[in-house]
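in:
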């Protein structure tokens, strides 16, 4: 089969033919219908320190996918059947550790990550653990199903933020930030403002429901936002988030910085008595049900979010488009 392979512990990736996988006990084999590129995939391609600490090449890249079930692994207990359209939850939980036992399977202490700790979905076929497989509504456009995973991140972020009736600033309008704009509006925020350097993303933010967008933090928004969702993960974006939050406000951190970030704790945190939350992934499976409800009600339009489609073999071209910032979510089609 054709697949995108992180072949060596160095920058780059290759698209080449590799053996087709087979479903082991506890897994399902799927024919990939679509996959989508995440910012994490760029980090893996570039071989950032984070990638070097989490990945052992060679490995099939990609963790956001939708596939058609072809085969159930021997002895696997599941209600899934061949022909079902399924998405993968990236966080593969053990089910036995303390966090799993108290309902925090998304931050399992023994967690394995699909497309990071094991072969992923930038391929024609993939295997997924049955326990982290989500059965999709067949009425949904299959090319949009892979974007449910990043939408789930946004739902988790906004749910933690407690946005009803609040002025919400979304710092960073990448795909998850764009989803956060739509979800915050759907969940009753009084005003949603987006912040992004790229004009393309700002325009897309308005289409996703933002009330206003800016390239940098305007003076009138300093110390004025009830809730700030930090989705970019840079030193500059964290500083803007801290300056924007009002006294007694709340900041939810989602973007993962590539480098250490310096902050003035006394000025921005203690003096303001801010509340901080952080999000890693989606709650399993409550966030996925929330996503399904939002999509069924038409409150979030993934068709607006997905702006580009490339063939799997055009992975390098797709990556260039994503780096440019002149895109929303990019989907790969095998």
């Amino acid at each position: 089969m054709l697949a995108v392979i992180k072949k060596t512990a160095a920058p780059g990736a290759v698209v080449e033919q590799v053996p087709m996988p087979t479903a082991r006990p506890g897994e399902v084999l799927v024919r990939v219908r679509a996959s989508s590129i995440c910012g994490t995939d760029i980090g893996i391609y570039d071989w950032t320190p984070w990638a070097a600490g989490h990945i052992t090449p060679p490995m099939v890249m990609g963790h956001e996918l939708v596939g058609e079930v072809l085969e159930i692994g021997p002895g696997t207990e599941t209600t899934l059947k061949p022909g079902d359209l399924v998405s993968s939850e990236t966080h593969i939980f053990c089910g036995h550790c303390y966090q799993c036992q108290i309902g925090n399977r998304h931050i399992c202490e023994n967690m394995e990550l699909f497309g990071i700790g094991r072969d992923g979905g930038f391929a024609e076929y993939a295997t997924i653990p049955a326990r982290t497989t989500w059965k999709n509504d067949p009425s949904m456009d299959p090319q949009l199903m892979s974007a449910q995973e990043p939408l789930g991140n946004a739902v988790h972020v906004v749910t933690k933020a407690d946005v009803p009736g609040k002025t919400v600033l979304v710092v960073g309008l990448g795909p998850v930030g764009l989803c956060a704009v739509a979800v915050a509006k759907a969940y009753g925020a009084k005003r949603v403002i987006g912040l992004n350097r790229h004009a393309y993303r700002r325009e897309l933010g308005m289409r996703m429901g933002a009330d206003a967008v800016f390239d940098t933090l305007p003076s009138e928004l300093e110390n004025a936002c009830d809730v700030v969702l930090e989705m970019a993960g840079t030193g500059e974006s964290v500083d803007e988030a801290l300056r924007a939050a009002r006294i007694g406000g709340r900041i939810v951190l989602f973007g993962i910085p590539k480098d250490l970030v310096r902050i003035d704790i006394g000025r921005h945190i203690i003096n303001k008595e801010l509340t901080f939350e952080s999000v890693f992934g989606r709650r399993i499976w409550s966030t996925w049900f929330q996503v399904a409800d939002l999509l069924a009600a038409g409150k979030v339009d993934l068709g607006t979010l997905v702006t580009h489609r490339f063939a799997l073999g055009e992975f390098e071209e797709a990556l260039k488009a994503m780096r440019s910032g002149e895109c929303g979510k990019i989907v790969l089609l095998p």
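note: The CA atoms of residues 101 and 141 lie 35 Å apart.
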